[in-house]
Design a protein that fits this description.
This protein is α+β, with helices and mostly antiparallel strands and 228 residues long. It is built from one helix and 18 strands. The radius of gyration is 44 Å and the shape is elongated.
Length: 228
């Protein structure tokens, strides 16, 4: 009787041990499968297992602005200074950009490299251009003193001095030759001078506005009269 009891106990113990071993083996297999799955998922981030390189962004001129956007000049000959800035698509400043400056009315104000010079009373628009981009600034010339009723211009060798003259409505401008070469004072309309090496020429201006003239003998020899 006792012998059968001992044999039964040994058999039960062996069954429990066998079940425990199978559970452990199953847990180990599950752990290995999970680890392999995680490693496989991690390696699938990219074909090479690394990150995709970021492509560099090439700056492209996108906007242009002029500062200040408007100026008022109080008399002929007074200067104002404008600055044009070009920025890329992210808003970053782009230096060394080629700029072209122009004035809508050089009888009122001229511009060179951002420097605006008053010529006569009136309004003009200054434009800065860089490639396909452009920006504008408004310019107003308001002289506190009335323009003169007479003005004189010297005709020297290849230059009118001053090149820009302001005169009151009904006033007269006189050109006096002082160089050794022959020149003329030629307007697009109205009275003009003959080609001469000495003497004077006068013209009265009874219409307000800006009047450009040139010497047709020498290219680039130009001037203007603003009548207010």
């Amino acid at each position: 009787m006792m012998l059968r009891y001992l044999r039964k106990s040994i058999e039960v113990t062996q069954v429990h041990q066998s079940n425990w071993i199978r559970q452990k083996e199953s847990s180990v297999k599950d752990f290995h499968a999970t680890a392999v799955l995680l490693i496989g998922l991690t390696a699938c981030g990219s074909p090479s297992g690394g990150t995709t390189p970021t492509q560099p962004v090439i700056p492209v001129p996108t906007s242009i602005a002029i500062s200040p956007s408007s100026v008022t000049l109080t008399s002929p000959g007074v200067d104002a200074f404008l600055t044009a800035t070009v920025r890329d698509q992210s808003g970053a400043l782009m230096s060394n950009q080629t700029l072209t400056w122009t004035s809508s009315d050089e009888g009122v104000a001229t511009v060179s490299g951002g420097t605006v010079t008053a010529v006569a009373n009136g309004s003009a628009t200054v434009t800065a251009t860089s490639g396909s981009l452009s920006a504008q600034a408004s310019v107003k010339v308001e002289s506190s003193s009335p323009p003169p009723s007479t003005a004189n211009v010297t005709v020297s060798d290849n230059a009118f001095n001053p090149s820009a003259t302001m005169i009151a409505l009904g006033g007269q401008v006189t050109w006096t030759w002082s160089g050794s070469r022959s020149h003329n004072v030629t307007f697009q309309s109205g009275a003009s001078s003959a080609t001469q090496a000495s003497g004077t020429f006068s013209r009265t201006f009874n219409t307000p506005g800006s009047f450009s003239y040139q010497c047709t003998v020498h290219s680039g020899m130009q001037g203007s009269v603003s009548v207010n």
